[in-house]
Design a protein that fits this description.
With 222 residues, this protein is α+β, with helices and mostly antiparallel strands. The protein has helices at 5-17, 23-70, 80-97, 104-120, 125-151, 162-165; strands at 169-174, 182-185, 188-194, 206-213, 216-221. The chain has a five-stranded mixed β-barrel with strand order 1-2-3-5-4. α4 runs antiparallel to α5 (125-151). The protein starts with a helix and ends with a strand.
Length: 222
């Protein structure tokens, strides 16, 4: 029995409009990939900052020991430049915390501030490094969990920075394809491209942000 051409065409159109059954599984895989990328980003950021700080502390220790051999006067005034360095580092870490929302950099800022106090009291550079390490570790293990529990006690885990945008819903303001597009996310307009280059989204469609790449949001059908 042969199916009429018109019925066959109508059947193909219905099949094309029907959502693919594998899409939920694919979306779950994408969400898992986003979570892994966030963890990798935080790990790399924390490791990089710790390495930079360790290098700076090592340089300060070397210069500090050299300064003591050339100027052994016991009544020399404290070198306030080292204390200023620690304070500036603490402010920079606290400012960078606004872009992560993990409280990790804020705890390192507390350690840098403690080291700055030791430097202001004319403590040796080695002691400053020890105070920074101990204060940072104590803050991360003791204070950070308390802050996280207090922040999320009466609300769900609220992401911050780029983490708040990735996974958020958006409204297409201009047609999105592989060359151009515009989406509104939380009241802000973002340049957008489809996460899957084969997809297009018309104005007024609802999408979900999968990834932020530079200043462009990569989106997926909501």
């Amino acid at each position: 029995m042969t199916m009429p051409l018109e019925e066959f065409v109508a059947l193909m159109h219905r099949a094309a409009d029907r959502p693919a059954p594998a899409e939920p599984g694919r979306r779950a895989g994408i969400e898992l990939r986003i979570a892994r990328k966030r963890r990798r980003r935080y790990a790399l950021l924390s490791t990089g900052i710790l390495l930079v700080i360790a290098g700076i502390v090592t340089v300060l220790a070397m210069t500090g020991s050299g300064a003591k051999t050339t100027s052994p006067a016991p009544t020399a005034a404290p070198d306030w430049r080292v204390a200023v360095f620690w304070i500036v580092l603490a402010v920079a870490l606290a400012a960078a915390e606004m872009f992560t929302g993990t409280f990790m950099l804020l705890m390192l800022a507390a350690g840098a501030l403690a080291a700055g106090v030791v430097a202001g009291l004319d403590g040796p550079v080695v002691l400053q490094g020890i105070v920074f390490t101990v204060a940072s570790a104590a803050s991360i293990l003791g204070v950070r969990p308390i802050l996280q529990r207090a922040l999320h006690r009466n609300s769900e885990d609220t992401p911050m920075g780029l983490e708040a945008i990735e996974g958020s819903p958006g409204l297409v303001m201009e047609k999105i394809d592989s060359d151009h597009g515009l989406v509104k996310i939380g009241g802000e307009l973002w340049s957008a491209r489809p996460y899957d280059a084969t997809q297009t989204f018309d104005e007024g469609e609802r999408v979900r942000v999968i990834e932020i790449r530079g200043a462009t949001a990569l989106v997926w059908k909501e």
